[in-house]
Amino acid sequence: MDDQVEIEGRTMDILTREQRSHCMSRIKAKNTKPEQVLRAALWSAGLRYRLHYAVMGRPDIVFAARQVAVFVDGCFWHGCPLHSVKPKTNVSFWQNKLKRNIERDINVTARLNTEGWTIIRIWEHEIKDHLDSAVLRVVSVVTSSKSP
Ligand SMILES: [Zn+2]
Predict the structure, then answer these.
(1) Nearest-angstrom CA–CA distance, 7 and 12
(2) pTM: predicted TM-score of the whole model, two decimal places
(3) Would you give the DSSP letter of residue 38?
(4) Strand ranges (DSSP E) for 9-135?
């Protein structure tokens, strides 16, 4: 991995400042969604995973051989304790919807656990604020899970 970083570093040195900033802005623009940010970070940490793998609950990232699945939970839709916003209109509709989402998350995690899966749930805000620790959490779970 160090080699790769070094090669990337060298490549970046070859580029002009304009090319470099164009390159960086494209990377940034492409990785706006939290799950994409996490995928990119895990990939550069050396982890290889499957997307759109047919598992109940449609996890965002799947390590199939090790039976580890990662869900990235949006703070609003999944009722993050820090950032859940109380909708001001259609209050009961939203309360029910968010409650159902949270219940479904719990059920999906429980069902997959009984099927032998290890589930990692990461909040959207963890990716925005603490990407490194989110990556470390996934890396440590994946590397300590049963080998393929
Ligand atoms: Zn949050």
Answers:
(1) 9
(2) 0.75
(3) H
(4) 61-63, 68-73, 118-123
Asked if 56 and 105 touch (Cβ cutoff 8 Å), the reply is no
For residue 76, report the distance from its CA to the centre of ligand 1, in Å. 7
Q: What is the pLDDT of residue 32?
A: 61
- Taking the centre of ligand 1 as the mean of its atom positions, its distance from the CA of residue 26, in whole angstroms, is 26
Distance, in Å, from the CA atom of 78 to the CA atom of 102, rounded to the nearest integer, reads 6
Residue with tokens 């499957």: 50
Distance between CA atoms of residues 120 and 100, nearest Å: 20
Give 19-29 pLDDT, tens digit per residue: 555 544 444 44
| Cβ neighbours for 47, distance < 8 A, ≥ 6 positions apart | 63, 138, 139, 142
pLDDT in tens, 60-102: 999 999 999 999 999 989 999 998 777 788 889 988 999 999 9
d(CA 104, CA 124): 18
Alpha carbon of 127 to ligand 1 centroid (Å): 10
